[in-house]
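User: Please predict structures.

Assistant: First:
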Amino acid sequence: TRDFWLYTSAFTLIIFGVVGCNFHLPAMLSDRGATPSLIATVVAVGAAGSLFGRLVTGILLDRYSVLRVASVFFVGQAIGFLLLLDGQQWVLPASFLLGAVQGAEVDVMGYVVARRFARAAYARIFGTCFGITLVGAMIGPMAMATVFDRTGSYDLGLMMLPALPLIALLLLWRVRPLLRHEAK
């Protein structure tokens, strides 16, 4: 359905950006002169952000609309990308924000698939949506590597990444809202 493709496209853009960036984050930081200790801390903070996103998403989805919850995390992702452009001083909050969206994304996807589409076919629909989304997770790191190989820097990729969660939000705004009986 139209809604399936809008949701799937939005989630694919989100995971394309976050996995593409996170995969290259240690190399990005190393290129900017970060110490191994800082790089390890950044990775740990990203993991903490992912745990936070995973734990908080369910609580938020029980109280607020999918669009509001997704908006918080997707805008957080855009901000995280922008913070990385500003050098090492903002790398810890950037890593946390990127981790949070990575933790929240699959939870939001599971929630909307369970409520929007036929529950009798939940596993098939969720599996298809998740499988397509994982294509974004495979292509994202390759795209960032291509940018680096062609330009000698990750900056161009980082400049383009903030657009992805904003496009994803536009796609979600095009989905028909969950009806009251679907939201419960």
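Second:
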Amino acid sequence: MLTVTYHGGALLANVEAQGVYLGSDWASNSALSNQAANLDKFLGYVVNSPYMDMLTQAGYNVGRGSAVAGQTLNLSLNKSTGVTDTQIRGQLQAAINSGQLAAPDANRLYVVYVEPGVVIRDGADTSQNSFLGYHGAFAGRTAGGAAADIRYAIMAYPGTPNPSAGSQGFASAMDQLTSVSSHELAEAVTDPDVDYKQLGWYDDQLDGEI
């Protein structure tokens, strides 16, 4: 039986999502540009859909939200070494500072899609062997310099050097990206500050989120 309980931490009660397309391939490859547009449509739908109503009805004290247009961070990523969580955080902060991304607030969630061919490294864990996506938070700043909690979710693109979509039971890359996004969205709105500040909804017995 699930034993998820509320630990008193922050929730994203009405999430404000923004897609972040990390890497120059999202801009230079027309197929990927189209996929980014479709992912933006998906985010706009899912945050204001029966999927969020399910969380409300389950008693997690979160509801429907909204989304703003996604942004491509047109960066050259090293496909030999990959990208680290620390580097992604730095790029998010830089884009916030420049005004390219919407301002962080109590409901903001940046949903990061890393371009194909890039392994993501989070400490000892990598997208090659440990995760399809994850979410987190860090102490950052607004463009004006005020302290702000920055909440984000990261999705690895399926296919070499990462596992293929088919190997994970998905029919396509888009199927995997939307499924993992849905998963991370539910966890992020109910426990946005995991491994950062006070937990929200968490299962102590099974050591996991909803």
